[in-house]
Amino acid sequence: VTINKSQILVAFTVVLLFSMTIYHNGHFRDLFSYYEHAGEKTDDIDNDSWTVDLDSQFEMADEFDLMIKNIEDYEYPANSVLVVNQGTIVREKYYNDFTYRTEFNTYSVTKSFTSTLIGIAIDQGIIGSVNDPIVSYFPNTTFDNDSPEKQRVTIKHVLTMTSGFDYGVDPTLAPPVEGSVALHVLNSPVSREPGTSWVYDSQAPSILNRIIEIQSNMSLMEFANETLFQPLGIQDPRWGADDSGLTYGGFGLYLTSREMAKFGQLFLQEGIWEGEQLVSKEWVQESTS
Questions:
Q1: 224-252 tens-digit pLDDT
Q2: Does a structural domain hold residue 90?
Q3: Phi, psi values for residue 234, rounded to 5°
Q4: Which of 52, 221, 242, 278 has its CA 20 to 30 A from that of 176?
Q5: Can you tell me the distance from the alpha carbon of 204 to that of 28, in angstroms, rounded to the nearest whole number?
Q6: Which intervals hold domain Beta-lactamase-related (predicted)?
Q7: Choice between 60 and 44, residue whose per-residue pLDDT is larger
């Protein structure tokens, strides 16, 4: 089967935005009854730069219309469906009283934003390379459980979930710690040789946010707003933080469906938004290959 670029564009955006639900203990649970309810943006977001044509008969329109009909007929637990084709919103549906103003918890999609900010920091030269050891960015800090393995953990290992950190608890969960999550991770032992095994990890990405703060002399949110959110027209997004004030690297970012679609569109345009290269083409290719 040959799939052209327009089909990829549509499919990518739907995968990114489709259905904010969770499968828990054998049952589909609505995300916002199981976790914190999403908020509603109250500022003016009507001029968000999207062109909208909900009557468009784009390629695969019939398939997506059938998908939406099946969602509604069979009460599949979806909260929003948004389809973008060639830069235009061609289908947009919301359920459960949600609207285009609803800020959905993106959960682990947050990790993709953290990765992008690392790419931008490398593009700007404030971070050297993904091959830099993470401890090199904390030269005056002594960590618990130090080892040769910990000294070898790189930014790339954290990005690819091959760091080898061992927290003694499920690494997919939010860390049950007070204070800095990044410091909690850095004080944890490394029980596997970095780069040799993959373990899903929602905790270690907070190290990356802290490195960005150190190197940019800005808070993570200040850096993100200046380099990514504001250029994309994403207004004042919520991003959860730990007790130290550091935004979580692995989860906690809230965005509207249209804002998430902008992020997808940015990658489909190889890092360019309205003529400006926000993140390098090389980083986009490396991140998606």
A1: 999 999 999 998 899 999 999 999 999 99
A2: yes
A3: -90, 115
A4: 221
A5: 28
A6: 72-274
A7: 60
Of 185, 201, 216, which residue constitutes the final position of a domain?
216
- Predicted pLDDT at 46: 61
Q: Considering only CA atoms, which of 156, 112, 116 is closest in space to residue 133?
A: 156
Helix axes 205-216, 110-124, angle to 10 degrees: 30
Q: What are the φ/ψ torsions at residue 154 (nearest 5 degrees)?
A: -110, 170
Please check whether residues 16 and 35 belong to one and the same domain. yes
Q: How many domains does the structure of the chain reveal? A: 2
- Give residue 71's pLDDT band: very low, low, confident or very high (50, 70, 90): confident
Q: Which residue has the higher pLDDT, 116 or 9?
A: 116
What's the pLDDT tens digit per position in 87-113?
Answer: 999 999 998 889 999 999 999 999 999
For the entire predicted model, the pTM comes to 0.86
Provide the mean pLDDT of the chain.
86
CA 150 to chain centre: 26
Does some domain include residue 228?
Answer: no
Is 238 inside a domain boundary? Answer: no
Please give the residue range of the domain that contains residue 14.
5-102+256-288
Whether 94 maps to a domain, the answer reads: yes
Helix axes 5-17, 257-268, angle to 10 degrees: 150
Domain match, 87 and 164 both: no
